[in-house]
């Protein structure tokens, strides 16, 4: 006879096993070593890696990484942007475009800007995480800074760079990385991760970047110009990500380039972080009309992984399992990349609870805060370069003077935001800034006069819109993305509208922030015949219909953009206009107006400003014309690049008409690169280079105009006289480019900029004139402010190797920002050594310190006449 124990034990055992199975999902995670915060990041990554299936590993190698619920791993989207402020994620402080910040020559300023940016990024990520949102533009991996060299002003993405000089780019790029990533401790979480892009030998053209091969690059140009900033960010900035570029380098796509990614980045420089592909770059390996170096996504993905590209922005890596199955790569190759990705996520604290991450304690009030607005103003002031000031016409008086503010950029806030931008609380336009600074705002006359490129000026006719006997536009909203069912909200919009969900601002009360759709309907009955223009600025999915015919359709996935449509309208005729909108990703945005592009009329404009004492003309170009692979093909522009570097003809012609009035003209140039301003200088008494100055740009410009700020910025690029001074755009040889290899006379040189102070440089004094390789030497130079206005001087030190006829004319090797009161002298000291004296060695095939004579040059710009010199012998 069986005992009670023998009868019930098998059932008891089965019950325990069942409980284990049922509750294992609940308690198992507590047993995993990778969940233990006391363990090191690398140990935790190794423990998690061995628990992943091949499919799970591959899912983690895509920019939108799927959650792994069985292990408690959240979804993560690697793609976020913060070029000059948190971008595409709603409300944020918008600082000047990087090319503008580069003009400050101020690494401390750049560090403080990006420290503020990372504060906002962390605070926004905390908000998103608490809401359970892990989408694009919400994560902690910021794909910035851009440290490509602006070798040619025609490149549209030059606006994203820190200029044409490798040293300055490295200096400011490192400052940006350190500001973003925060203090680095082995046992504490990182603030956010920065990404050096686009690696490498990448600076246009935009129109053929998916098939372009940067080939026959001289080793000297590679190591002396195209790579130093990346090396500096890896070695001095400890940057955690590097993005490989779209183009090929010497026949191989950059994202599958063994020389760049393995031999140089990994082995030579010791980079241990993540390499991420530019978006869609792996598909370029096999797509028609692209590189077509590989047969399909399987071969392309395997080649990219074996070359060191860990993370793909795109969808080709979905084929990695096939690549493993057919032997193109091993699972252990996958493991190398996944381990790097896991370490990064552990370092960011993204795998742990928010309350355990110190950076999640940053208060959301920092987002678009007053303090950050003040920093944006400081950055904008320090970015403005005074190029001309004939007869000291500047600064202007604040009263007793009538000022005509003119030009296409005078009252355009969107222009000031640049590209890869967030949405500020408010923007001070140049017109706003001048009006606020003037003692009597009625003394400021605004007359735009002309457009950027077109010989027209937009005049709103929104008042001629109505729907069912109500003036304006009828708006309907649904809290679903397909306009299904009855609308949740119906309202009338009586005025041109600017709708944006930035800062959790809904399109209308009762409408959700995301996942919504809308329909805008009106009847436009023009009072005159002519070309009618619908002006839209969108972020989302949009269809535009006129008289029930689809005339425009767009879906943005790369930030907001303009979307216009024009048609011939007849007076008295009715036009039924409908706009269907749906939220896409990030913040939804829809700006709308309707009107006429009126032909430029010189006499009409001149009659409106006849009482003005002086004209401030804000012109130049715009991020709507120059930028990343854009669909813009207008005279002088091609897909975001420029085919000409002159100021658009319509503006030049207008300036000439203004010049004939005899009134003095102050020209404010807004652009992301150099413009040939020779003819502008002939018509203008003063020229200011304002770049794309961010949300506070208008106040900063006004502060310089009226003398509330003494300009201190210097050009981070060469301003050429004309396009004939430039080599072919697709030629990547440095000869003839930038101040380092440009042998002719520029219009304005690199490092140049005027001040309201007068600075005079004395003789250089050297601690010694001969040093051994590896030693350092001190140089001092007296700099006097001989004027009465206190000022901040940008003291520049250049080095030239005397016996190198084929090398650069000179190389910037140090910068000091020195504040000097009027009538006083400062002694400015530089210490240089091995890093500053490195020069290209043909024999060794790299940058080294060599024996010989070096000329040390210190002064106010890169022009020979502005530099004091002495010889240093190295042995």
UniProtKB/TrEMBL annotation:
<dbReference type="Pfam" id="PF07691">
    <property type="entry name" value="PA14"/>
</dbReference>
<dbReference type="InterPro" id="IPR037524">
    <property type="entry name" value="PA14/GLEYA"/>
</dbReference>
<dbReference type="Pfam" id="PF00933">
    <property type="entry name" value="Glyco_hydro_3"/>
</dbReference>
<protein>
    <submittedName>
        <fullName>Glycoside hydrolase family 3 C-terminal domain-containing protein</fullName>
    </submittedName>
</protein>
<dbReference type="GO" id="GO:0016787">
    <property type="term" value="F:hydrolase activity"/>
</dbReference>
<dbReference type="InterPro" id="IPR001764">
    <property type="entry name" value="Glyco_hydro_3_N"/>
</dbReference>
<dbReference type="InterPro" id="IPR054850">
    <property type="entry name" value="Xylosidase_Xyl3A"/>
</dbReference>
<dbReference type="InterPro" id="IPR036881">
    <property type="entry name" value="Glyco_hydro_3_C_sf"/>
</dbReference>
<comment type="similarity">
    <text>Belongs to the glycosyl hydrolase 3 family.</text>
</comment>
<dbReference type="Pfam" id="PF14310">
    <property type="entry name" value="Fn3-like"/>
</dbReference>
<dbReference type="InterPro" id="IPR036962">
    <property type="entry name" value="Glyco_hydro_3_N_sf"/>
</dbReference>
<feature type="domain" description="PA14">
    <location>
        <begin position="468"/>
        <end position="610"/>
    </location>
</feature>
<dbReference type="InterPro" id="IPR044993">
    <property type="entry name" value="BXL"/>
</dbReference>
<dbReference type="InterPro" id="IPR013783">
    <property type="entry name" value="Ig-like_fold"/>
</dbReference>
<keyword id="KW-0732">Signal</keyword>
<keyword id="KW-0378">Hydrolase</keyword>
<dbReference type="InterPro" id="IPR002772">
    <property type="entry name" value="Glyco_hydro_3_C"/>
</dbReference>
<dbReference type="InterPro" id="IPR026891">
    <property type="entry name" value="Fn3-like"/>
</dbReference>
<dbReference type="InterPro" id="IPR011658">
    <property type="entry name" value="PA14_dom"/>
</dbReference>
<dbReference type="InterPro" id="IPR017853">
    <property type="entry name" value="GH"/>
</dbReference>
<dbReference type="Pfam" id="PF01915">
    <property type="entry name" value="Glyco_hydro_3_C"/>
</dbReference>
């Amino acid at each position: 006879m069986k005992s009670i124990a023998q009868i019930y034990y098998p059932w008891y055992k089965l019950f325990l096993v069942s409980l284990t199975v049922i509750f294992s999902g609940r308690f198992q995670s507590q047993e995993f070593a990778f969940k233990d915060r006391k363990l090191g990041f690398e140990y935790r990554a190794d423990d998690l890696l061995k628990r992943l299936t091949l499919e799970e590993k591959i899912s983690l190698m895509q920019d939108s990484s799927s959650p792994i619920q069985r292990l408690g791993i959240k979804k993560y989207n690697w793609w976020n942007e913060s070029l000059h402020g948190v971008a595409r994620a709603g409300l944020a402080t918008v600082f000047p475009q990087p090319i503008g910040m580069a003009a400050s020559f101020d690494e401390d300023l750049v560090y403080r800007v990006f420290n503020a940016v990372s504060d906002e990024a962390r605070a926004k990520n905390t908000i998103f995480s608490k809401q359970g949102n892990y989408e694009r533009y919400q994560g902690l991996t910021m794909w910035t800074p851009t440290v490509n060299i602006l070798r040619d002003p025609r490149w549209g993405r030059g606006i994203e760079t820190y200029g044409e000089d490798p040293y300055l780019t490295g200096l400011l790029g490192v400052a940006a990385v350190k500001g973003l990533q925060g203090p680095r401790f082995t046992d504490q979480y990182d603030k956010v991760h920065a990404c050096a892009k686009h690696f490498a030998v990448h600076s246009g053209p935009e129109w053929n970047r998916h098939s372009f091969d940067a080939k026959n690059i001289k080793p000297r140009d590679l190591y002396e110009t195209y790579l130093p900033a990346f090396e500096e960010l890896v070695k001095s900035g400890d940057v955690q990500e590097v993005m490989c570029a779209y183009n090929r380098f010497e026949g191989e796509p950059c994202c599958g380039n063994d020389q760049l990614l393995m031999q140089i980045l990994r082995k030579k420089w010791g980079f241990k972080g993540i390499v991420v592909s530019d978006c869609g770059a792996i598909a370029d390996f096999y797509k028609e009309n692209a590189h077509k170096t590989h047969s399909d996504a399987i071969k392309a993905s395997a080649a990219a992984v074996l070359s060191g590209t860990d993370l793909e922005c795109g969808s080709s890596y979905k084929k990695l399992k096939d690549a493993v199955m057919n032997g193109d790569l091993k699972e252990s190759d996958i493991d190398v990349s996944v381990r790097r990705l896991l370490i990064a996520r552990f370092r960011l604290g993204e795998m742990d609870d928010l309350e355990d991450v110190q950076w999640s304690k940053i208060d959301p009030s920092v987002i678009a805060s007053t303090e950050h607005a003040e920093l944006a103003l400081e950055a904008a002031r320090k970015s403005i370069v005074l190029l001309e000031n004939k007869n000291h016409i500047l600064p202007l008086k604040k009263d007793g003077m009538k000022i005509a503010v003119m030009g296409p950029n005078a009252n355009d806030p969107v222009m000031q935001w640049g590209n890869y931008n967030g949405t500020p609380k408010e923007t001070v336009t140049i017109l706003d800034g001048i009006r606020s600074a003037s003692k009597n705002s009625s003394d400021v006359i605004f007359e735009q006069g002309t457009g950027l490129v077109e010989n027209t000026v937009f005049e709103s006719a929104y008042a001629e819109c109505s729907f069912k006997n109500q003036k304006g536009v009828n708006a309907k909203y649904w809290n679903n993305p397909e306009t299904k069912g009855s609308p949740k909200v119906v309202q009338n919009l009586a005025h041109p509208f600017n709708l944006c969900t930035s800062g959790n601002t809904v399109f209308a009360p009762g409408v959700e922030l995301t996942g919504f759709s809308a329909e805008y309907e009106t009847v436009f009955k023009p009072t005159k015949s002519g070309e009618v223009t619908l002006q839209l600025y969108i972020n989302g999915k949009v269809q535009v219909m006129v008289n029930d015919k689809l005339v425009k359709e767009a879906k943005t996935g790369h930030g907001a953009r303009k979307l216009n449509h024009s048609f011939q309208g007849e007076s008295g005729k009715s036009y039924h206009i409908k706009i269907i909108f749906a939220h896409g990703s990030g913040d939804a945005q829809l700006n709308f107006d309707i009107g006429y592009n009126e032909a430029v009329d010189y006499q009409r404009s001149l009659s409106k400003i006849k009482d003005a004492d002086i004209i401030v003309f804000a012109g130049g170009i715009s991020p709507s014309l120059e930028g990343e692979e854009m669909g813009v093909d207008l005279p002088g522009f091609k897909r975001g690049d420029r085919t000409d570097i002159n100021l658009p003809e319509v503006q030049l012609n207008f300036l000439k008409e203004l010049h004939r009035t005899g009134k003095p003209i102050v020209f404010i140039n807004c652009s992301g690169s150099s413009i040939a301003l020779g003819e502008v200088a002939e018509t203008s008494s003063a020229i200011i280079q304002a770049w794309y100055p961010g949300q506070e740009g208008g106040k900063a410009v006004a502060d310089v105009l009226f003398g509330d700020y003494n300009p201190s910025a210097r050009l981070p690029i060469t301003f050429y006289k004309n396009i004939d001074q430039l080599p072919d755009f697709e030629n990547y040889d440095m000869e003839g480019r930038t101040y380092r290899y440009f042998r002719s006379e520029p219009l304005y040189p690199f490092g140049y900029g005027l001040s309201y102070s007068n600075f005079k440089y004395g003789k250089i004094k050297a601690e010694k004139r001969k040093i051994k390789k590896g030693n350092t030497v001190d140089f001092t130079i007296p700099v006097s402010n001989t004027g009465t206005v206190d000022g901040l001087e940008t003291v520049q030190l250049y080095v030239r190797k005397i016996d190198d006829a084929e090398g650069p004319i000179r190389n910037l090797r140090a910068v000091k920002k020195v504040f000097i009161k009027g009538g006083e002298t400062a002694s400015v000291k530089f210490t240089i050594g091995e890093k500053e004296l490195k020069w290209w060695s043909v024999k060794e095939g790299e940058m080294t310190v060599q024996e010989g004579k070096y000329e040390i040059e210190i002064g106010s710009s890169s022009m020979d006449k502005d530099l004091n010199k002495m010889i240093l012998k190295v042995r």
